[in-house]
Amino acid sequence: MATRLQIAVPDFVDLDARELRLLLGATLYNQGRFSLGQGAEMAGLSKRAFMESLGRCGISAFTHSPEDLARDLANA
């Protein structure tokens, strides 16, 4: 089950919903709270596109432990 959340972002921030979902998915992935697949789903992207987007967010897709990578593969 998913929880819906409504956030008011000030106009001067210049963020759309798509970019906000990407930033949230990337941040949770970076914190180890999301697998790569879960981050991609949050962002509405394929895993490949999400991995490419991580680099643009300054996050490496390959900094996690072998256990984390195994969990990502299991969730693939």
Overview of the molecule:
By secondary structure, the protein is an all-alpha fold. It has one domain (16-74). It has 4 helices and no strands. It has helices spanning 17-30, 36-43, 47-56, 66-74. Helix 1 (17-30) runs antiparallel to helix 2 and helix 2 crosses helix 3. It is globular and about 40 Å long.
Bulk shape: globular
Largest sheet: none
Multimerization state:
single chain
Structural class: mainly alpha
Tags for this model:
mainly alpha, 54% helix, globular
Short description:
The chain is mainly alpha-helical and 76 residues long. It contains 4 helices and no strands. The two termini are 19 Å apart.
Layout of strands and helices, then pairs:
Layout: H1 17-30, H2 36-43, H3 47-56, H4 66-74
Helix pairs in contact: 1-2, 2-3
